[in-house]
Amino acid sequence: MADTEEQRKFTQTQRLKAAVHYTTGLFCQEVAEHKEVEFSKQTIAAIAETTFRQCEIFARDLEAFARHAKRTTVNAEDVKLTARRSNALFSFITQRSEELVSNNQEQKEKRKKAGGKAKKKSDAPLQSGMDEDEDSNIA
């Protein structure tokens, strides 16, 4: 049973590494076109391996931060802690986090208003045979 689990984990890791390598190749190809440079296969492989290892480190750090806070779910604060060593990355993640929070608040407010309007419509007695939408089209 343990061999099967190890085999599954190994296969999954290999598939992830292949995906990272493929994506790194695409990214290097795009950069090469814009910057008029070339990347050797060895360079692409080295970038892909470094990226994969860094992602493993980030994943372990994220799990540790959440566990330290006695949570089972990683949240935005854990991601910010992981990015704290890179000022540019930390600033980017903080900005995106704030944008997401703002967008979520706006969506909640819209849903709340839409829910309130639907409730008001159903609570109000019918005064005419026309809906509000039809009234607004008459001008």
Automatic annotation (TrEMBL):
Residues 99-139 are annotated as: Disordered. InterPro entries: CENP-S/Mhf1, Histone-fold. CDD domains: HFD_CENP-S. Transmembrane segments: none annotated. Keywords: DNA damage, DNA repair, DNA-binding. Signal peptide: none annotated. It comes from the Eukaryota. Residues 110-120 have a biased composition (Basic residues). Residues 130-139 have a biased composition (Acidic residues). Belongs to the TAF9 family. CENP-S/MHF1 subfamily. This is Centromere protein S.
